[in-house]
Amino acid sequence: MPTIAGSEKSEEVSLLSEDTISTPKKLKSRQRIAVSNLRTPDKEVKQDSHENLAVDSLSDCLGSESRDEDQMRAVKEALHVSKAPSTIVCREDEHRRVFEFVKGCLDQQKAGSLYICGCPGTGKSLSIEKVVKQVGDWSKQACLPPVDTLSVNCTSLTKTADIFSKILEIVEPVKEDNCYSSPLHRLQSLFSQKQDSSSRMMYIFLSFCCVSVTSDDLTSVIIFKFFSRLIIADEMDFLITKDRGVLHDLFMLTIFPFSTCILIGVANAIDLADRFLPKLKSLNCKPMVITFPAYSKDQILRILQERLMVLPYVAFQSNALELCARKVAAASGDMRKALSVCRSAIEILEIDIRGSPGPESQGPTPDNPVVRMDHMAAALSKTFKSPVVDTIQTLPQHQQIIICSAAKAFRGSKKDATIGELNKLYLEICKSRVISPAGITEFTNMCTVLNDQGILKFGQARGNKLKRVSLRVDESDITFALQGNHLLTLGVHFLSSHCGRERLTKAGTNIIQRLNLYQLYANLIKLLWLVN
Ligand SMILES: Nc1ncnc2c1ncn2[C@@H]1O[C@H](COP(=O)(O)OP(=O)(O)OP(=O)(O)O)[C@@H](O)[C@H]1O
Ligand SMILES: [Mg+2]
């Protein structure tokens, strides 16, 4: 529950949100949306995300204590990687191409191979799972025999060649012939023989007679062995051996004259195709390749919004979700990471609610348990803590201000500026925070130090003031590095000039609460300034 109670605190917090996050007009519509969320969650949540409003949570309307825990649990569940989303958004094209490939093979009763690659967390396994289900539904509708599917995560194999025994298990569930030297040889031998077409005819006949036929029924009379098999080899990178023999043999299974193997290999290595496939090409078994690109900021945001839409209340401020999407897209485009950051932000909010400020706690407990920008920034910082962030955090205050000026200067398409231009921005920030600025010589020296540390980069120029400077670190790293305790001083200076210390002193009797409030102000102002 909220750590800070009382009208003065509420006044401070609402003042803060009105001044810095949204206008009073927006606040009015916020409340309307929060209430209507209860009735028409999907539509309204969508509306909120489009309008980018800070929205109150369900707890305003319910007023129960245990609801917080239940809500938090539900949000974490909705964001858990193991929770399969009902629809996969932002992968429509890839999904369609994979499905068309399998469908094409089944239609023509031919074997084939597909190689899917993409960075971690780009929805490869998830999409394949959906395709398998879709293929099952489609073959049923088309009165085709069910497609036997083998999904192997290659990391689970004790040795790489075990992939062949797994395939043999579905191709020949009842062993007929024990006189083969290895599962691979047996598969090669099976796929070299003519198919028993009676099996397909038998299936169609039984289906026609409305007899429910399962693959188990048919395999028990050993007439099923030549039906199509869909083989999914996920994490296929693990099959790479020194001589790459297993990988080659696997793909070559699809070119035997009577093979009905539809092989889909999934791996992270984008260049696997280039490294191993020339040989496969020469063997005439080069697979079709589909690449899953990293998710963009908009895609991550949309996926998060879709996943949260199942909840009848709003758990995140939309700008907090956007911050997460932007940072994750810039770092890797890994959806798994985005989900984990959001869950971590929920945990930080939980700490706030419980009123036990841990290291992550960034400010006073909100009345509405909604993940705010500061929660999200703390969660991101936890996830993306890097040497760059550490370096920025340990810099002297003036150098940090220079970095802030640079981040501001190079936002958008601008790639570099002169030292003079950067100095102008630096002076503006110092002025706004009532900090006496360093002179131009000292300023240039500090820029040189930052250049030596790899944070700024100098271009060539004759005069110092004309020297061009660019930023070598990610703007989001700066945002994360500069939120937190050490910014307190900057925040206090800023607040002193705008609100007056006396007013803040009156705000509460507990010194910790006051510090938290300062910190919240400082973080929010900093974030809004850098983000907007
Ligand atoms: N389009 C999406 N919609 C909803 N959730 C998604 C989407 N893409 C990814 N996810 C979530 O991210 C998680 C990771 O996705 P997935 O396992 O498909 O990644 P991957 O590309 O197979 O990664 P890896 O290469 O590490 O195996 C999924 O479990 C799912 O929860
Ligand atoms: Mg995967």
Question: Can you offer a commentary on this structure?
Answer:
Helix content is 56%, strand content 8%. With 532 residues, it is an alpha/beta fold. Strands 2-3-4-1-5 form a five-stranded parallel sheet, with helices on both faces. Strands 6-8-7 form a three-stranded antiparallel sheet. Helix 12 links the parallel strand 3 (229-234) and strand 4. It is elongated. The protein starts with 6 loop residues before the first helix and ends with a helix. It binds adenosine-5'-triphosphate (ATP) and magnesium ion. Adenosine-5'-triphosphate binds next to helix 7 and helix 16. Residues 81, 85, 88-91, 118, 120-126, 268, 303, 335-336 line the site of adenosine-5'-triphosphate.
Q: Approximately what portion of the residues adopt beta-strand conformation?
A: 5-15%
**Into which percent range does the helicity of residues fall?**
55-70%
How many DSSP H or I helices? 25
Average pLDDT metric: 73
What kind of oligomer do you see? single chain
Question: N- to C-terminal separation?
Answer: 31 Å
- The gyration radius over C-alpha positions equals 30 Å
Shape: elongated
Present as ligands are: adenosine-5'-triphosphate, magnesium ion
Strand order of the largest sheet: 2-3-4-1-5
The low-confidence parts are: 1-63, 197-213, 215-226, 358-365, 485-522
Whole-number tally of structural domains = 3
Structural class: alpha/beta
Describe the main β-sheet briefly.
Answer: 5 strands, parallel
Keywords: Cell cycle, Cell division, DNA replication, Membrane, Nucleus, Transmembrane, Transmembrane helix
Region (Disordered): 1-20, 26-49
Domain Cdc6 C-terminal: 403-482
Transmembrane segments: 203-227, 247-270
